Amino acid sequence: MHSRPLLATLGIAGELIHTAGHSDDSVSLLLDTGAVFIEDLTDPQLIGPEDGDVVIASWRTLRERVAKTVHGGHGPVRAMPDL
After folding, report:
1. What is the C-alpha to C-alpha distance for residues 83 and 72, in angstroms, rounded to an integer?
2. pLDDT tens digits for 12-64?
3. Degrees (nearest 5) of the Cα angle 52, 17, 44?
4. Angle at 26 between CA 25 and CA 30, to 5 degrees
5. Which residue, of 1, 7, 22, 44, is most buried by count of CB atoms within 10 Å of its CB?
């Protein structure tokens, strides 16, 4: 929520959301359109050494905020994963 005013000055309608998982300091950019840019948030089906509960919690936060389309650092654009 605090990121909205800053992003608005750049012409971006959205917010930065803390999405720990692969790393503790990760953030994702969620646009008001439902597109989310996840940086390095681990896909829930590919959880390895990460804390699975933390990864799932980050994905749930994005789903609660109505994320629809995932733009990851790797791979194609895809729909939000089922949890």
Report:
1. 17
2. 999 999 999 888 899 999 999 999 999 889 888 889 999 999 999 999 999 99
3. 25
4. 140
5. 22
Name which of 73, 62, 71, 83 is nearest 35 in CA terms: 71
Q: Specify which residues 70 forms β-bridges with.
A: 36, 78
The alpha carbon of 69 is separated from its chain's Cα centroid by a whole number of angstroms, namely 10
In which order are the strands placed within the sheet that holds 69-71?
Answer: 14-18, 27-31, 35-37, 69-71, 78-79
Encoded amino acid at 20, one letter: A
- What are the phi and psi torsion angles at 8 (to 5°)? -60, -35
Q: Identify whether the C-beta of residue 14 lies closer than 8 Å to the C-beta of residue 1.
A: no
| 3-class DSSP assignment, residue 64 | helix
